[in-house]
Amino acid sequence: MIKNERFVPLQPMREKPFLLEKLDLKFRWGNYGFRVLRFHLNSFAPGAKIGFHKHSEFEFHFVASGKGNVVLDDQTYFLQEGMFYLTGPDVLHAQEMDQYDPLEELCLHLEIVPLTTDSFIERMDNDKSIASVEPADWGKEQEVSEAEQCVRQLYDLPARPMMDRRQTMSYFYRAYDAIVNHESGVYETIRQCIIQIMLLTTHASNQEKQPWLTLPHREASEVHFQMACQFIRDNYMFPIALEEVATTVGISKRQLQRVFQKYTSATFTAYLEEVRLTHICTELRIGNKTVEHIALDNGFENVNYLYLVFKKRYGMTPRSFKEQSQQIINE
C-alpha cells in the first residue's frame, strides 16, 4: 500500500524514524527553556490502541498519513491525514487507529520550563551557566514577548484536532533533512523548526557539512528508558501494563524488559512498584487517608496486594509503617 505523501516526504523519515530524538536537544527562547524529549515519525498498525494516559510535557501530534480516533476531554474525534492536535501537560487522552488503514504520526514531545525556576536548572543537567545570567539577558524584548505569548497560547489551545493549514508538518522534515545533510548551523535550524512548529500550532543555508559527532547523542535504549520512566511517573496511579508502555515508547515488550534490566538491574514490574511505593510511603507519613484509599489512589487494584508487596519491600505492613512514622513526627 502506497502512503499519501502530499504533506511531507515520508519515505526518507521511515528509513530512520528516530533520528531526531537521538539528539540531546535543549535551547532557550525568550524567558523559557525547552528540552526535546521525543521528535520522531511514529507508525501504528491498523487497529492499534493506546489507552488513556497523560504526559507532563507538551506533545504535538501531526497525522502524516492514515486515519483513526482520539479521545480528548471525554470527546471522541476523528483523525485523518493533514490534521494535528496538542496534548499536555496532564491532558488525559487515548488513541485508536483505523481497523484497516495504518496511521503515521509526526510527534514532538517538548518540555517547557521558565528559566527562573530551580527545576529548570536541575532538568537541564545542572548547567550552572544558566543561573548566572538574568532572564532579561536571554534575548531581545521582542523575542521575550513572542515566546511568552506563544507559550501562553499553547496552554490555552483547545483540546481538539484541527487541520494543519499552515503546512507545519514540513518543519519536521526540514529538521530531519538538516541532520541527514550535516548542514552548517544544524542546531539553530532544528531550534527554529521547533519554534515554528510551536508558533504555527498556535495560529496554522548553507550546504557545508558538519561532523555528525558535533551534537550530543543518546543511545536509543537510553531514550526508551527515559520515556518509559517518565510515562510511569506520570501515570503510576492508573493500571499500567508492560505492553501499553512498550507501545507508547515504540518498542516491543521484550525490548522494554531488556532496557529496564540494563539501566536498573530490575524488571519493569519492580520499577513500577518502586515508584508507587515511594508515593505511598509519603502519603502514609503525612496523609490522613486510609491504607485502602492510598492503595487504590496509587495504582494497586486492592489493599491485600499492597500489603504483600509492602511487607516484602520494607519488612512491615503499611499500617505499621504509618504508626511508626506518626510516632516519630510526634516525638
What is the strand and helix layout of this fold?
Blueprint: H1 10-15, E1 26-29, E2 32-44, E3 49-53, E4 58-65, E5 67-72, E6 75-80, E7 83-87, E8 93-97, E9 103-114, H2 118-123, H3 128-131, H4 141-156, E10 162-163, H5 170-180, H6 186-202, H7 220-235, H8 242-249, H9 253-264, H10 268-286, H11 291-297, H12 303-314, H13 318-330
Antiparallel strand pairs: 1-2, 2-9, 3-8, 4-7, 4-9, 5-6, 5-8, 7-10
Helix pairs in contact: 4-6, 5-6, 7-8, 7-9, 8-9, 10-13
Please give a quick description of this structure.
The protein contains 13 helices and 10 strands.
CATH topology name of the largest domain = Jelly Rolls
**What is the residue-averaged pLDDT?**
85
Describe the main β-sheet briefly.
6 strands, antiparallel
Which segments are poorly predicted (pLDDT under 50) over 5 or more consecutive residues?
117-121, 127-133, 205-214
Strand % is 15-25%
Do you know the CATH architecture of the largest domain? Sandwich
Structural class: alpha+beta
CATH level 4 superfamily of the largest domain: Jelly Rolls
Radius of gyration: 22 Å
Strand order of the largest sheet: 1-2-9-4-7-10
Helix content: 40-55%
Q: Count of helical segments?
A: 13
Helix and strand run: HEEEEEEEEEHHHEHHHHHHHHH
Tertiary shape: globular
Compute the number of strand runs. 10
First and last CA, distance: 71 Å
Instruction: Just give the CATH class of the largest domain.
Output: Mainly Beta
Structural domains: how many = 2
